[in-house]
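Let's do one together. I've listed all components of the complex below, 561 residues spread over two lines.
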Amino acid sequence: MTSMPVSDTVVSAKDLGLTFQTADGPVTALTGVNLTVEKGDFVSFIGPSGCGKTTFLRVIADLEKPTSGTITVNGLSPEDARKRRAYGYVFQAAALYPWRTIEKNIALPLEIMGHSRDEQKARVARTLDLVNLTGFGKKYPWQLSGGMQQRASIARALAFDADLLLMDEPFGALDEIVRDHLNEQLLKLWAATQKTICFVTHSIPEAVYLSTKIVVMSPRPGRVTDIIDSPLPKDRPLGIRETPEFLEIAHRVREGLRAGHSYEEHA
Amino acid sequence: MGEASFFRDRLLPISTVLLALIALWYAFVVVLNAPFERDTAARAGTTISFMELLPNTMAQERPVLPAPHQVFAELWDTTVNKAITSKRSLVYHAGITLSATLMGFAMGTVLGILLAIAIVHNRAMDRSLMPWVIASQTIPILAIAPMIIVVLNAVGISGLMPKALISTYLSFFPVVVGMVKGLRSPEQIQLDLMHTYHASSSQTFWKLRWPASMPYLFTSLKVAIAISLVGAIVGELPTGAVAGLGARLLAGSYYGQTVQIWAALFMAAAVAALLVIIVGFAHSLVLKRMGARA
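Okay, and this is what the predicted structure of the assembly comes out as:
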């Protein structure tokens, strides 16, 4: 990865727009998005469904092509960044391959990227440890709970050591107790690995608890309505969610979401 | 209650149906074969009572419908009591049909998989090939089989190959249809994952599409192997009745040897059942190795 331009900006979007051509005419998923993500940031994208938060993540990942504006990832086009394996992507569902054991699932990107067997083994062991799944490597996905499956999918995204982690509502399908636990673990993991994380969610407490930067989005057309830099310290126990600072940010996010919703009736 | 009992859950229902079928069979034997006995008696100028006629209907040499025990006596006689190399051994004939079946099945499976791969990976192939694949199965095999045999004979191909080709013609179809579905079965999210890794299409094929298609492949293979046997038997009908279960059926019908026809029929059914069971066994073995729930 030495060939990458030296810069602290990981993602930079300028006047980014994406319009889908559908049978019912064009649908504007994103319009006029300006955003920079710096190295080491934990950026949450929050908004109601249809606000384009997932679409924006998919644009970063080169899973969708923007129709206007520019975007760079590590100073490159998203396609070139993807070809250099710049990011690990965690989907809404764990998307583990059911015919592979957990360790084979985590080794999947390593096999594709041509790592040696010894290297694969070492990396699988290390990432299993990172997500607290040591000892579950030989299990098949169906033998694990939903939360454990999602942790395995995070391990898979971490296995090849990309500096950027893209997470699309990774805990959306889990219950709140498991979600709290995983949020805490994710923060520890973020601190341990120094990764840059882009995180899509529709939970206000989750966004405020995790992020250094919160991007509030609203639908029809999908756009950014507010960008909040969190003043919370990097070290965050779960109890921080009862502090006035936390509640103040949560309030601002809620206001931002409400503003975006104000003319929903006319849509 | 919950404990599985082999006797109560498997053996009892199956043997009940079997006994009912055999009883029904015997009833029809009496009904269908009785007119011949009455005619014989009438020609001799005598009358025959029902009780006298009853055992005779089950011991005719060329009955309209042979009794089960006659068929099984014939089966026993032509399998156990004959050397396998003998032309009168049903095992010998079954072996000939089986070799054509397996060859046709193997060719049909390979052809079906290759066509499915082409169809899944290429839009032009999807549009141009798929309609022809479906059209191929609308032609009755009984009509096309003699032509295939004659044409191939004319170009010097005879013996096993023409029969195997008819099996191929029938068996590639379920494999194509099943594998197209199977290779397309990965979810978008699983394909997206491969895209984020910048995986090549051959990597996506071997690590995702191929393993995902296995349940579909084996379901298709079960149909394909049974239909291969049908193809091989049909392929033996127009060859001049030399050898094989098809030839045995044809010879039996030429000479009114109904017992021989039924014996060959049962042999064919047994071979088909055995083949389907073997494929089913391979199916569960593969799925087990792929970590399926027990």
